[in-house]
Amino acid sequence: MANTHFLILFLLLFPILQSSSPSVAASPSDHRYHIGDNIPFFVNKVGPFNNPSETYEYYDLPFCQPDPIVRKKESLGEVLNGDRLCNALYEFKFREDKIGETLCQKRVNVDEVASFKEAIKRDYYLQFYLDDLPFWGFIGKLEEDTWSGSGSGGGGTKYYLFTHLQFHLLYNGDQVIQVNAFADPNHSIDITNHVHLDVHFTYSVTWNATTLHFHNRMDRYSTASLLPMYRQLHWFSFINSSVIILLLLALLALLYTRHLNTDFKKFSNANEEDKEVGWKSIHADVFRQPPNSSLFFALVGTGTQLLILLFVLLFLAFTGTLHPYNRGGLLNYLVLLYALSTVIAGYSSASFYGQFVGNGWERNVSIAAILYAGPVFVVASILNIFAISYGATTALPFGSIVVILVIFVFLAIPLLVFGGVVGYRFRIEFQGPSSTKKYPREIQQLAWYRRTPFQMFIGGLVPFSAIVLQLHQVYASMWGYKIYTLPSILFVTFITAIVIISLVNIGLTYIQLSVEDHEWWWRSVLCGGSTAIFMFAYSIYFYVRSNMSGLLQLSFFIGYNACLCYAFFLIFGAISFRVSLLFVRHIYHAVKRE
């Protein structure tokens, strides 16, 4: 039975692992061709240029179709990314030019003309792949007719369908280096009127030599991120973050030297009755387990898992293993690494729960299993219904859904439980500086600026102000066509955010304890995670300022960003709690030594 279980897992994971290589395999695995060899070419998808999530299959539009249409076998990541590669009538032979080659002669009926007009009106793009090189083209163009009194159209907007594509390819030796597609405006047909048309689709292919090497052929897709303007933005963001860190370090140093040291001296020199003031007076309550402990420690465990997962992804990107132009590669790694990293969530949540609560870790680990995966599954299901109703390629096929569920049930859940068992069995007993009272101390009424909402605002605003410029670049990469190719800058920005969140929450925790408020556990998580709330609010601002439109695009934008920001809420919340716990243990152990 066990052998069958592992065989099923191997058969499910093998295609994912196989497709997560740095590039998608071409017909010759080494991408080398002899003169006259056929080069793998696929059409992928079409969609409005301003709506990256609204994509449809290439042959949903009445283009020339091969018989039969053969779909390329795709990895799970490619399916999740909405890729639907198919064969086409275009034929490319290595270093063989073609001029005015006929693709097909097609009679386009009224309904097909209307679909072309709608696509041109919404600025549809076409995506192709040749030898694993992505490139794009457009269907047609709009022109304003200035002669309002002449012609059958009587003025207004004219719709022109491109009937000829010009492919320019560059090669070096026996390898393809670059490909571009251009529509010839001189070969277009007026489809403004809804009539039957006979359309002659053609294409041309020209080859030219280049000195660019094969291993540098993807550099052209990343040049936008390396322009001087974007380099200046990256440097400005880095300097801005550094200044904020230095200011926070100065403030915390002042806090520690002037306030904490003063408190230590006062407590060591005072009488026994005078010692019980300020944060010292709550020493018997400050390590009391938080309310809803199962949920709290499941949140910390899940946040720790996602933190490790993010570090691994950044490391893979930094080392070049994970390429931004490898279609489906990021999602392949994301699904697999999430399943494998659940052992960290189980271990961390059960270990903390065992230290502070004791028995009942099973419920804690069960909550950790669904704390992030549950909301993501609900959001993905709703978005999938929207995508199916629109007929978009972002709709997941039933087989892909089954594969994801099997990976979650047979890999992620067992690893989560295993991590929980190990974490609980080998937990380190928590040794508090003082015993906890049976009944908690009553907390006095706090001023508005010392309450949770205002502290969340401060705890989120300061880190957000340090990362907002880089966040804009990330959103532009996610919801536009700019490829983010600077993982080192992204890594530095993330480390900066962690440092700022840690420093800010140490200060906020001290302020809370100084007014004899011992319920710092949940507040530390909320103040740290509030940065993600600002991130989500900025995503709404980004959408309003963009050219995206339509219910489908809006639903995917809100859904994906909600899942992303929720993950960062868990990550930053877990970091904030861990840092606050270290700080609280330090100051109370210092008082105990005094």
Automatic annotation (TrEMBL):
Keywords: Endosome, Golgi apparatus, Membrane, Signal, Transmembrane, Transmembrane helix. Belongs to the nonaspanin (TM9SF) (TC 9.A.2) family. It is found in: Endosome membrane; Golgi apparatus membrane. It is a multi-pass membrane protein. Residues 1-19 form the signal peptide. Pfam families: EMP70 (PF02990). The chain crosses the membrane at residues 235-256, 295-318, 330-353, 365-392, 398-424, 454-472, 484-508, 520-544, 556-584. Its main location: membrane. This is Transmembrane 9 superfamily member.
